Predict the 3D structure of the following.
Amino acid sequence: MRSKLLQMLMAQQGKFVSGEAISNYLGCSRTAVWKHIEELRKAGYKVEAIPRKGYRVIHQPNLLTKNEIKAGLTTKYIGKNVVYEQSVSSTQEIAHRIASDGAEEGTVIVADEQLGGKGRLGRPWFSPIGSGIWMSLILKPKIPPQQAPQLTLLTAVAVIRGIKEQTGLHCDIKWPNDILLNGKKLVGILTEMQADPDQIHSVIIGIGINVNQDFFPEEIKEIATSLKIEKGEEINRASVMQSIMVQFEQLYELFLDEGFLPIKHMWEAHAITIGRRITARTITNSIQGYAKGITDDGVLLLEDDLGTIHKIYSADIEF
Ligand code: BT5
């Protein structure tokens, strides 16, 4: 509904369109129209409303369409094929579908809005329209399935480098999949796989980056941040995405040629988890202790108070 409204307003190219015309077109009440307009404003659109004239868009947030993403992109295969959708449930779902249909390596699915964006363990990922980078990347690496989590760490390094290049901001990594800026979550990474026990068909890497949000919903407002909040200015999403894809391709090729070790060192340079007292909550239990480091496979080593070292493959970390 909102994207239909947006298309209608944009087609007017700055001319007013009456509330009545909109409600007829969308088949909803004037109150519903007003609510959708408010949503657009929250997403960064400046919509002027004048009694008896109607609504018009006087400023639109920067866009992340296929053309913008591909224009000037210097990668060989990452992002050469871009699938752009304005509004989807989750880019991960589309990526899984087209990966099984034979999509080529490096295909990127990106959406302006996700209505059912997901994190790990089915948790929600808040992905409002027009303000973030919500993307999934399809890879087909010839590596054993147990090495796939290393790609999460590789992605974190690529994202941090891309963000630094475009904004000058220095981010931190919280093992395994969070990128923090000034202690708040800026980026979430979700790595999923289509594989047999001994062979990967596809790895789908979901990356969610808060770029131009000014505020967050109640549930996450204390823990989340955006590039705009931290930098104090609006950031061009397509440029950030391009830098990340360039960085990703370089690191991915290094990984395929030389393995995880060089990536591990880069990852460690940004990691704030290591050397700290942490609590690791897994699905089954919760362990406290010191984070000693990660193994060459990217597994977190946690030493508890009795000196026992635990290998943590997947968990939520609290400091
Ligand atoms: C993640 O999960 O951090 C992985 C998020 C991956 C999102 C991308 S977007 C493109 C692709 N398509 C998808 O559907 N997903 C991927 P996890 O570690 O489980 O963190 C989820 C938790 O982060 C939630 O329970 C909230 O507490 C918090 N959260 C939700 N939305 C957020 C946001 N926009 N910014 C910061 N924190 C958020």
